[in-house]
Amino acid sequence: MRRRLLSLLIFGVTGMACGGPARGAMFGAARYQAADTAGRPSPAARAQEAAWRHRHAWPPSDFERDAADSSLVWIAQHADTTTAFRGLSAPSDTVVWTSGSGGVIARSVDGGLSWTTHRIPDADSLFLVDVSAFDARTAVVLGTRFSGGLARIFRTDDGGSTWRVLYTDDRAGAFYDGIACWDVRHCVAFGDAVDGRLAIVRMTDGSHWQRVAGDALPAALPGEAGFAASGTAITVAGARHAWIGTGGGDHARVYRTENGGRTWQVADTPMPAGQSAGIFGIAFRDTLHGLAVGGDYAKPDATAPNVLRTKDGGRTWQLLGSTSPPGVKWGLVAVPVMKDTYVAVSPAGTGFTTDDGATWTAIAGSGYNTVVFATPAAGWVAGNGGRIARASNAPHP
């Protein structure tokens, strides 16, 4: 029931709220912070940004003039599809993949200047809720049937032209929420509870997936499940650490592993939880420091606190304030290299923090379902109606 409500919100209410593609163009000389350790743009980064701006130079729109006092705006890009995107992965500043409804994948190899769409064969009934890409040719994709009872993991090694099925879960109640990878050989994916435990599967050789045994997992709470809204309810860091955020039950919890997914522990958090509430997105900038965001999708504009912070690898969590704009947040990413900087998104709006979640700055424009940053200046968001946008520059105060 909770998943069906979420799908109605995504395809219905929030779809109408988002409207059409956001207007956007690169506005002149937008501020940019590159990724060197001193906080100064490197020569390569300056050259890359200059080339990007030269290729995309045109007069700023009214939207961008209004947003010129912000450090970041979303610049619309165009894929030839109307799918609802929810998975997003960028292995470099030029390669980005996104996945969504109806078995559709979109891929760009030129930073979003152009996009190629593919439909995975025999996956029309699946929502491709998440994707993890390793380069321009290789990616794994997680698909699930919204009515439950079927989830599959696919892999391509030729840029999406052909796909093979690596894993199928067709147990009654099978519904998967996200996938994350340490590298091309080692990945982990999770789904809602079946037989009293979350469904967690792991890959250790690039091809074969195995279900984590029930005795290696904590018991699930009644109603506990993931939110398959952005593909960011699961994340990895280091070589063997991973975390999963949940809701749906009496408590929002964070599962963690420090051994590549072989065994898992769980921690309660103070995030408000319930049938439609809990943790939607989780991100770590190293193996100790991370944030989680969420809220209640049945109350998308609520101003209740919806940000958690940990400094001990997810063992304990502190409830901070509310994001800006307020309301439930679906997707979260830690911006690479930029310490304490995260971007959170939902169809209700997007925002960023540069002080480890203590305060947030709203980003002007429409909202999106999911977000990824490959470098401080190479970030993307994706959402309903085939909408994709690139960050104008790195987030900064």
Walk me through this protein's architecture.
It is a single chain. With 397 residues, the chain is mainly β. It is built from three helices and 28 strands. The radius of gyration is 19 Å and the shape is globular. It starts with a helix and ends in a 6-residue tail after the last strand.
How are the secondary structure elements laid out?
Layout lengths: L1 H17 L24 H13 L6 H5 L7 E5 L6 E5 L6 E5 L3 E5 L7 E4 L7 E7 L5 E6 L6 E6 L7 E6 L6 E6 L5 E8 L2 E7 L5 E3 L22 E4 L3 E5 L7 E5 L7 E4 L8 E8 L5 E7 L10 E4 L7 E2 L11 E4 L7 E5 L2 E5 L7 E3 L6 E6 L2 E5 L4 E5 L6
Antiparallel strand pairs: 1-28, 2-3, 3-4, 4-5, 6-7, 7-8, 8-9, 10-11, 11-12, 12-13, 14-15, 15-16, 16-17, 18-19, 19-20, 20-21, 22-23, 23-24, 24-25, 26-27, 27-28
Helical coverage, percent range = under 10%
Largest beta sheet: strand ordering: 1-28-27-26
Number of E-type strands: 28
Low-confidence stretches: 1-70
- Average pLDDT, rounded to a whole number, is 86
**Gross geometry:** globular
**N-to-C CA distance:** 41 Å
Rg computed from alpha carbons, rounded to a whole number of angstroms: 19 Å
Q: Quick one: biggest sheet?
A: 4 strands, antiparallel
Number of helices: 3
Note the beta-strand portion: 35-45%
Structural category is mainly beta
Produce a short descriptive summary.
By secondary structure, the protein is mainly beta.
Keywords, please?
397 residues; mainly beta; 3 helices; disordered N terminus
